[in-house]
Amino acid sequence: MRVPPLAAVVLASLLAGCAGTTANTRGAPSPDASTVDSLFRDYDGPDRPGASVVVIHDGQVVLRRAYGLARLEGHEPATPDSNYRLASLTKQFTATAILLLVQDGRLGLDDRMVDVLPGFPAALREVRVRHLLQHTSGLWDYEEFVPASQPVQVKDRDVLALLSGVDRTYFPPGTAVRYSNSGYAVLALLVEQVSGMPFARFLDERVFVPSGMRSTVAHEEGVSQVPRRAYGYAVDPSGFIPRDQSPTSAVLGDGGIYSSVVDLVAWDRALDSEVLLRTETRKQAWTPPALPNGMSSRYGFGWFVDDDGGRQRLSHHGETCGFTNAIVKYPEQRLSVIVLTNRAGGSPWTLAQGVADLWLDRPAKDGPPTNRPWPFETLPNAH
């Protein structure tokens, strides 16, 4: 039986209920739940895939809602406990796993991948661990080598095999930014190599349990189960159709975690404490690198990082077969908004920012999102 260190704290936060009265970041009363409900009306109904949303402010859950269905077959309603495939929100967990090994003294951010991961292409000897974390490696996207008709799902180990014949990167490592799912699949293999345990087990023992995430899992078909699982859907002219898996859905490091907004409250608390990472390590993760051309990247270790009107904003979007998700976090304002949906498409990043704007006491913006991090993922190659 798990006894997570943060369990009592998380339970206390959840007792705050769906819509709290905690003051927002400018001292005004918090928005009521009906204001948020209006933003999610497209997900609310008895016949459509759903969404779960949570707002965490000053360490408390001030709003927690769910809409629509977790599974259309059987009309299973979505709840805050529904577990969605996180897609690229997984990358912050993979980055944390690497940083734990760095804190342990078993790995260095400037280690060359050829020196620490057997089988990494010898021609790419200048690629270092930090380059993969920051998407500055120039590593080729493994999806380019996976045909749509692929009969067997690709796994992390297969990604390394797919890259084995690569003899160059898109650009010299460390000189530019190009979002690459390959880098995070390879990082999962590096965790296994250095820790001596499967990636999914490392995450469970070193990240999920210490954080108090009781139902989160890096899912492996036939190995693990996803409790209260939400299933993915897409839209076609006939309505919503099942779209839960693709040839790349079994890769763990870039997008294979399932979690709920309830568990992600525990994750958010762990991020804001030293339960997992020391303060100086966390600061590194939330600081994008300067590039040789004088430009600053907008990606740290598993997070997009930018400035929003003088506020540091952390964010990430995740999109994969049947799921689209977003997280927006303002560390200094102690405000986080997480939106998980089991529908391909949509714009959870706009919804998350719109909800955050309510607590920042500014009107939500209409039209295209202004905060959408670049370069963003799009189907079918996103995770």
From TrEMBL:
Residues 37-346 form the Beta-lactamase-related domain. Keywords: Hydrolase, Signal. Residues 362-383 are annotated as: Disordered. It comes from the Bacteria. Pfam families: Beta-lactamase. Residues 1-23 form the signal peptide. InterPro entries: AmpC-like, Beta-lactam-related, Beta-lactam/transpept-like. One of its GO terms (molecular function) is hydrolase activity. PROSITE patterns: PROKAR_LIPOPROTEIN. This is Class A beta-lactamase-related serine hydrolase. It comes from Corallococcus aberystwythensis.
